[in-house]
User: Fold this.
Amino acid sequence: MFSSIFSTAPPVDPNAPTFHSVSDKFPENELFGPLEQQDTEWLCAGGFATETQCFYTLTEDGTMILCQVIHSAVGVWYPTIQFTCKVANPSRGEKIWKSINVTNFVTPPPGHDKRSSKADEFSILYKSHPDSEFPESYTIRANLGVDLQVSLEIQRPKAVPGWKVGKGPEGGYSHFGVDPKNADGYVIHRFWPRVHSSGHVIRDGKAEAVKGTGLFVHAIQGMRPNLVASRWNFANFQSNELGGVSAVQMDLTTCDANGKRGPGSGGAVVSVGSVVIGDRLVSVTSETKWPGEEPKGTVTSRATHLNTEIDPDTSYEKPQDILFEWKAPSIVPEAPGVVEAKLPTVLGSVEEPKGLIEKVDVLAEIPYVLKVAVNYVAGTKPYIYQWINPGKLSITGPEELAPGLSKGVEVEGLIYNEATFIS
Assistant:
């Protein structure tokens, strides 16, 4: 006992890595990790953790519908649970945005598992249909006030399995801190990269039919958001050409404290993504770009800001263009080779934006208790830019995946993308 009182912890190497990226944990030919039931169950962790379920729908007329549940734990306080919904079509100048704190949140609801949840204001119920063309689905019902109600069915096609980067319980996780087994925090994303959506939205008493495609993401940030990343990029491209195409990507840039060589070596960019062709998942990408190092390996997963300019509204360098890139081995056994895709996205200038839905002032949207607990006291003012635009995805890959693919194919569709600046 006395020896333990007087003992000291071994010194920590000041140059020890303080960020452990998911892309470094798995070989390039093992990036696809199929989702298991527990992967999309609500964790509802304590401490400082933000957990979300996000459902994105893009309709053929260029409307974006986002339904999102946010479970925010803030230390010793009770968690705050929000339901947010955005319906937007910038080409028509339409936008409706609702964010409400829900009451009586529960998971699992009676008769369901923890992939489902409900509250007085909404229900999101998971269903399994093992012998169907769509073996899994979610039914969303939300009453967000007299001016907005939502009823949607989100279905996953049979040949588009949900994924995370890497198999098993460690799949998908990037860890923060010196010891990944006793991490200071973590971040993880799980995806259904292409879904079919149908139902209706009621705006001001008028029902509007909804039919489109989109994406489901279950994400957890297991530490304060301002310590996870200094910025984020997100892309969700969907098209009905070639039998159904999607290209999705999520990347983050670590804060200065979290890098390969200890505090002060941050700025690592870790990205994950996937490509779907013919309503079939064909590749999963993950790459980490370390500051001062050339990228290694053959897999590419990147979002590059181009032609940046200072936005006086936010004080951040907003891109006028973003180039999204994917490159990875095919995961389809009968179609060996490499799948490569590029998506140049034109966003316009500050004065003449293209497809801009909104510049979201994050601190204006979250409850006061979260502002205090998250502790954005360093003068940061996080903003999320949101756009939706027509896009052309250039793809090359094995001919077995689609006719003409070996020589390159351009696919027209819609891209919803975000650029988030935190510090």
The chain is about 5% helix and 50% strand.
